[in-house]
Amino acid sequence: MRYVRGVFNYRKNHKILFIVILVILLISIVNWMVPRYYDYRQIPTKVYCDKNEIDKQKYLLFPMTAIVFDGGLGNQLFEVFSLLGLAMKLNRTAIFNSDDWILHSKLDLLQEQVPQVAARIISIPIEIAESTRFLYSPACCHYQFASLLSCEQNRFLIIDGQYFQSFKYFSTIESSIRKWLKPPQDEEMFLKKMIRRKDELRYKHCVHIRRGDFTTDSQHAGTDAVFTIRAIDYLYSLHPGLIYLFSNDPEWVRKRIAEQLDYHGDVKIMETPKDAAIKDLYFSQVHCDSVLITAPSSTFGWWIGYMSKNQSNVYYRDIQETEDMVKYQMLEEDFFPRTWKKLGMSRNGLIITK
């Protein structure tokens, strides 16, 4: 019996050991599969100015929240160009953190849509001992620039914030942005062929309409049909011409907007696939004489306006007239360029310039 009991105990212990190893293995697999976001909190912050300038190459980086959390092209362009603009202002080199593997696993959209922009940012590992972190407000649409940034001497400067949705971050590189986003020659030729010869000289209004998740996320306000129809009528009365409707919900646009306009023959719905969104920005540069942004917190609508031919003919809806929660985070003078025109709608339905 002693021998049999020993065999039994051996088998029991072996089984327990097998279960323990299996549990450890499963935990390891789960930890490997669950994304591990880079923890920038491990990098110290400063509240004083260091005047002992060092003679080294210095770098600037953001956590790149818009990319890491799968933001759309509009959000990613704001973040990348703000990084490049601030880097120039601070005489630093813009970089991606090569130790942030989640960031690098999600660069496909940027690399495929705007490869010439993505290529301008190198990836190198950061050294925590030579890094300083500055905390930025979580508000989306404020321009912030602390004087401490200019005198920070550590090699790696991390601005720990998100969104960076203000044109003021990249105002010094505006001409470069327009060059980087310029359509390739073959794309420009294709865009010009989209317009019939008899329509080449006609005025072209581009209207951005945002629906989709904006109508359900309780944060943004999607495009309102009544305002949009009356705003299009208003712009059409100023310059009769062609109307191009850009939207992520073409069926809604067809029924609620296009079919309600009196000049059907002048209206075209642009159904651009999400994975080719850059083509809308190309179209704006080549053809849009005016742009109407009907969902004022849409960053992609903003970029259609920013890339259009005439910055004095960009119109956007007054966000204060909407239920868009972003208005509580937005400083309008930081988000909308001064040359753009704000439109409102009076109680009797008239479109007014504010």
TrEMBL record:
GO cellular component term, pick one: membrane
GO biological process terms, semicolon-separated: carbohydrate metabolic process
Species, as recorded: Caenorhabditis elegans
Keyword Phosphoprotein included in the entry's annotation: no
This protein's name: L-Fucosyltransferase
Superkingdom assignment: Eukaryota
InterPro entries, per the entry: Alpha-1-2_FucT, Glyco_trans_11
Upper classification of the organism: Eukaryota, Metazoa, Ecdysozoa, Nematoda, Chromadorea
Segments traversing the membrane: 16-34
Keywords, alphabetical: Glycosyltransferase, Membrane, Transferase, Transmembrane, Transmembrane helix
GO molecular-function terms, A-Z: galactoside 2-alpha-L-fucosyltransferase activity
